[in-house]
Specification:
about 10% helix, globular
């Protein structure tokens, strides 16, 4: 089972968390057209490799945070707060 490190509670099993999807997606303005809104809602990248995701410690403290995770190996390379800048990738 994959382990995630909650910034507040420490390392816990994945089944205590819920994934909220890709982090850092900008919401379009309220007066955007239907095509733009549909793209925002339904079209997401499905990368192979490093990916930044939003996670919630649902069965713990309830806090949201960001995780940089490799989608192939599930190796977590960074955990950081929702309002913090993500790690630099090179």
């Amino acid at each position: 089972m994959m382990q995630l490190r909650c910034p507040w509670c420490g390392e816990r099993p994945q089944n205590e968390f819920d994934c909220g999807g890709t982090t850092g997606i900008a919401r379009p303005p309220l007066d955007c057209d239907d095509a733009t809104w549909a793209h925002y809602l339904f079209f997401r990248a499905n990368p192979k490799g490093a990916h930044a995701e939003r996670w919630r410690h649902t069965f713990g403290c309830g806090q949201w945070f960001n995780v940089r995770r490799d989608t192939v190996t599930h190796r977590v390379s960074a955990v950081y707060g929702i309002t913090e800048a993500g790690p630099q990738t090179g």
